[in-house]
Amino acid sequence: MGYYFEPRRNQLWKYFLVALVGAVIGGMLVILAAPSMLPLAVPELPDNGGPSEAGAAPPDTASDDVIITAIEKVSPSVVGIVNRQKIRTFFGEQQQVSGGSGVVYDAHGHLITNYHVVQGADELVVLLADGRQVAGRLVGSDPRTDLAVVKVNVPDLPVPAFGDSDRLRVGEPAIAIGNPVSLEFQRSATAGIISGLNRTLYQYAEEELGLIQTDAAINPGNSGGPLVNSRGEVIGINSVKLATEAIEGMGFAIPMKTVTPIVWEIITRGYVSRPWVGVYVADKEEARTYLGVEIQRGVYVFKVAPGSPAAAAGLAQGDVILEAGGTPIESGLDLRRAIRARQVGERIEITILRDGRSQTVPVQIGEMPTEE
Q1: Catalytic, out of 110, 116, 141, 165
Q2: Which alpha helices (DSSP H) does 270-350 contain, by range?
Q3: Which residues contact 192 (CB under 8 A, 6 or more apart)?
Q4: Domain ranges across the chain
Q5: pLDDT tens digits, one per residue of 159-184
Q6: Minimal CA–CA distance to 252: which of 110, 145, 99?
Q7: 249 vs 226: CA distance, rounded Å
Q8: How large is the C-alpha radius of gyration of the chain?
Q9: Model pLDDT for residues 86-127, shown as the tens digit of each residue
Q10: Is 98 a catalytic residue?
Q11: 8-state DSSP, 291
């Protein structure tokens, strides 16, 4: 008779199974008992200055108040300007309407705006901040700087404070106020910073306006409105925005340092008086490239305006201007600066090279014709 003995190791699984079942049951008991073992209240976390319960940091009310106050100071002085023109079409005479902005200059009803806002107008209508619509009269304009003055017969208009545009710094706040797109959005305000100073655009290069660059949105209709600093002072007149798909946030304003004397001349004269001699010149590179003329220094005179001071003094096409008023001349800009440093009626000594010989010619400075 034989005997069968089950190997001892095969009985170990019974003990393992018992242990596993016990562990599972014990774990379940711990889970069920856990709530009663937790503390009744979660300790309050320390305040580390982070976001509030709504998930947003509290607003910077100090900076917000500065912008709000500045807008409230200037907005009553901002106007809308409607330009109505009669145009002839295939269907007969029709009216074309465009618009822009302006800002009060003085309590006598003079308003500053852009020339392109009022250009060609047969009728001007001014919308005041209090809702009134009144007739406007063009006092005068200066296309070279894109500035104009409009007059309304309304006494005691609110005059804003005018700031010193020479003291501007890149990075300080800037606010544009005007009437973008249509009159539905009158006295809209956009805020940004001063992005750059003394900028030159090709359409203003000859006048050296030194434009203020800002990223405050300047939209169609904002033209002629004020650019304002954080103190509520008008520091410039909004004029142009570079608008292409590749460019964003590049608007430009004419600084008040330039605006003020031009506006004063328009009010007192009806136009801007500029010193002028009547020569048209090309520098060395321009003379070589476009005229086929080689000169070693100075600027080449390719035209003299008939009846001009230069013509009266005997300057002629083909002369090379070397100096003006004792200042060496190497570009048209040099010559313009030398002339503009004088007043109409003054004399300036101009040194020229003619037929290989230099000579000095006295020229009496005249007044630039308005069509120049």
Answers
A1: 116
A2: 284-286, 309-312, 332-340
A3: 173, 174, 175, 176, 214, 215, 216, 217, 249
A4: 66-272, 275-367
A5: 999 999 999 999 999 999 988 655 56
A6: 145
A7: 17
A8: 37
A9: 888 777 777 788 889 999 999 999 999 999 999 999 999 999
A10: no
A11: I
Per-residue pLDDT tens digits for 341-355: 899 999 999 999 999
Taking the C-alpha atoms of residue 350 and residue 51, their distance in angstroms, rounded to an integer, is 71
Exposed/middle/buried for 108, CB within 10 Å: 0-12, 13-18, 19+? middle
CA distances from 219 to 181, 216, 249, 342 (A): 7, 10, 10, 38
Are the beta carbons of 150 and 102 closer than 8 angstroms?
yes
d(CA 289, CA 305): 23
pTM over 0.85: no
Q: What is the largest CA-CA distance in the chain?
A: 152
Residue 236 tokens read as 């410039």
Which residue has tokens 């009060």?
Answer: 104
- Architecture of the structural domain at 275-367: Roll (2.30)
Among 353, 351, 366, residue whose Cα is nearest residue 278: 366
Half-sphere exposure of 175 (CA within 13 A, CB side): 23
Question: Where do we find the tokens 């305000």?
Answer: 189
Cα–Cα dist 241/223, whole Å: 9
CA dist 296 and 217 (Å) reads: 47
What is the C-alpha separation between 137 and 81, in angstroms, rounded?
11
**75 classed as catalytic:** no
Closest C-alpha to 323, from 341, 286, 302, 297: 297
146 is catalytic: yes
The CATH architecture of the domain made up of 66-272 is Beta Barrel (2.40)
Q: Given the residues 101, 141, 146, 334, select the one marked as catalytic.
A: 146
Count how many Cα atoms sit within 13 Å of the Cα of residue 227 in the half-sphere of its side chain: 33
CB-neighbour burial class of residue 4 (10 A; exposed 0-12, middle 13-18, buried 19+):
exposed
Point out the catalytic residue in the list 77, 223, 239, 308: 223
Between strands 161-162 and 233-241, the pairing is parallel
Cα–Cα distance for residue pair 298/332, rounded to 1 Å: 9
Dihedral, CA of residue 131, residue 135, residue 139 and residue 144, to nearest 10? 70
